[in-house]
Amino acid sequence: MFGGGAQAGVVRYITNKPKLNKFEGSADASYGITAHGDPNSSFTAVLNLPLINDKLAVRAVLYNDSRGGYINNVPSTFTRRNTDLGIYYANYPAVGGVCPNGLPNNGLCVPPGSPVINNNAIAKDAINPVKYEGGRLSALWDFNDDWNLLVTQSYQDMHADGVFYQMPLSSENQKLNPLEVTLFNTSYDTDKFENTAWTLNGKFGDIRAVYTGGYLVRNVDQVQDYTNYARGVYADYYQCYGPGSGYYSAANNYAIYTLVIRV
After folding, report:
1. Residues with Cβ < 8 Å from 81, sequence gap 6 or more?
2. Exposure of 29 by Cβ count < 10 A (0-12 exposed, 13-18 middle, 19+ buried)?
3. Where on the phi/psi map is residue 6: left (φ > 0), alpha (ψ -120 to 50), or beta?
4. Bridge partners of 62?
5. How far does the chain reach from its first CA to its final CA, in angstroms?
6. CA 250, chain centre distance (Å)
7. Is residue 60 over pLDDT 50?
8. Residue 147, C-beta contacts closer than 8 angstroms, at least 6 positions apart
9. Can you say how many angstroms the Cα of residue 261 is from the centroid of all Cα atoms in its chain?
10. How buried is residue 244: exposed, middle or buried, by Cβ count under 10 Å (0-12/13-18/19+)?
11. How many CA atoms within 13 Å lie on the side-chain side of 151?
12. H helices within the chain, ranges in order?
């Protein structure tokens, strides 16, 4: 019923419609604590207002939901290793089987002068708060016993910081405590949308007619830290190499050398 993209399941929200003959309103608020993290709070307000009794009414909803973070980004450094797969593409050879940094190698070495970075500027606790802000305004108009029109305008702004996972080991292979990570870029996800939807119901004699549609505008801006992917099996996929990307060049062989990786 909901298309090929719904094969894994669907969550369907059916919002309350305006009531044509009843004035009502409500407000809800909550406050809570996240274990090992920051507090949570939420607020929702609803107003139903008949404008023409039994003919025209509007319903407005406003909400704000703030969820505290619980993941800690702890201070760390990141140093290139000769065993990083991406180092293969740097093509800096070991001399007599020994790399300049004296570390084990897989036949190739980290080029001299490769920097060591740290995350001191962004290391802090509770880095992953989430905030939802939004509103909805709907209007229902009964033209007559056979025809009515429902129009709804919705807005939402969601901003999530940080990440929602933990790392057993730091970038330098040191054991971390639960709910800790070592990130080197500020990570976030901002998701804003506005949606206009309408449904026209009526009938022609014994034939029922329904015309429905919607218009969605959505803007997503996301940055995630991929620095630690340099340790991965397919690490070269996430790294820059080739002319102009590194500190070392010999016979047109280039190092990889954006250490801080984000997408």
Report:
1. 87, 103, 110, 231
2. exposed
3. alpha
4. 45, 135
5. 35
6. 41
7. yes
8. 200, 201, 202, 203
9. 17
10. exposed
11. 7
12. 87-90
The number of C-alpha atoms within 13 Å of 103 and in the hemisphere containing its C-beta is 14
Write out pLDDT tens, residues 137-180: 999 999 998 999 999 999 999 999 999 999 999 988 899 999 99
pLDDT of residue 196: 97
If DSSP codes are grouped into helix, strand and coil, which group holds residue 230? helix
| Strand-pair partners of 33 | 39
Q: Given this model, what pLDDT does residue 254 score?
A: 46
C-alpha to C-alpha distance for 139 and 158, rounded to whole angstroms: 25
Predicted structure pTM score: 0.77
Spatial distance between the Cα atoms of 176 and 157, rounded to a whole number of angstroms: 33
DSSP category for residue 17: P
Which of 157, 155, 148, 152 shows the shortest CA–CA distance to 137?
152
Q: Are strands 180-181 and 188-204 parallel, antiparallel or unpaired?
A: unpaired
Q: Report the distance separating Cα 175 and Cα 83, nearest Å.
A: 20
